[in-house]
């Protein structure tokens, strides 16, 4: 599949992303004002660019930790089974936790990760997702903060890959196959 020829059509510009990240960070800063315990948890690997930009706009002391859950592999479709490939380094019991996710699609990943983290009894747990595809949802779940709602397209860029490529694009684009076969 990665060998099929494709082009990337820009959906969200780098400038629009930066403006939205700044606005999200303002809301997050206001929400957590006064806490000295915020742990920002990035879900690897797709959120690494987003979390880097987001934490630099959050005007509070933060700790950064990472969690890796498997979902897509290299395919275009979600697996319902979610496995934890890399756990947090730090403890979150009694702490304010902000999970940073790239895309909420079917919702299975976030549902699983949230439940797992809640079982460790954080003080509060919120989620900030860069992108949301509400039309694809199979588990009723919503991020506390969402950057952009997008249609049911396969997207790449700004940390998000297609078969491990295109993470370094500064914008978000959708993959469009240019051969004639369907799908
Ligand atoms: P869910 O469990 O909500 O179906 O899937 C969530 C994960 O699937 C996202 O965190 C992301 O890693 C991946 N995913 C969902 N949609 C896309 C997409 O359009 N492009 C890429 N590259 N990954 C996606
Ligand atoms: Mg993800
Ligand atoms: Mg991926």
UniProtKB/TrEMBL annotation:
Primary location group: cytoplasm
Keywords of the record: Cytoplasm, Glycosyltransferase, Magnesium, Metal-binding, Nucleotide-binding, Purine salvage, Transferase
EC number(s) from the headed UniProt entry: 2.4.2.8
GO cellular component term, pick one: cytosol
Enzyme class, spelled out: transferase
CDD domains the UniProt entry points to: PRTases_typeI
InterPro entries: HGPRT (IPR050408), Hxn_phspho_trans (IPR005904), PRTase-like (IPR029057), PRTase_dom (IPR000836)
Pathway annotation from the record: Purine metabolism; IMP biosynthesis via salvage pathway; IMP from hypoxanthine: step 1/1
Catalytic activity: GMP + diphosphate = guanine + 5-phospho-alpha-D-ribose 1-diphosphate; IMP + diphosphate = hypoxanthine + 5-phospho-alpha-D-ribose 1-diphosphate
Cofactor: Mg(2+)
GO function terms (MF aspect): guanine phosphoribosyltransferase activity; hypoxanthine phosphoribosyltransferase activity; magnesium ion binding; nucleotide binding
Phosphoribosyltransferase domain residues: 9-162
Highest taxon of source: Bacteria
rRNA-binding as UniProt keyword: no
Similarity comment text for this entry: Belongs to the purine/pyrimidine phosphoribosyltransferase family.
Protein name: Hypoxanthine phosphoribosyltransferase
Organism: Fuscovulum blasticum DSM 2131
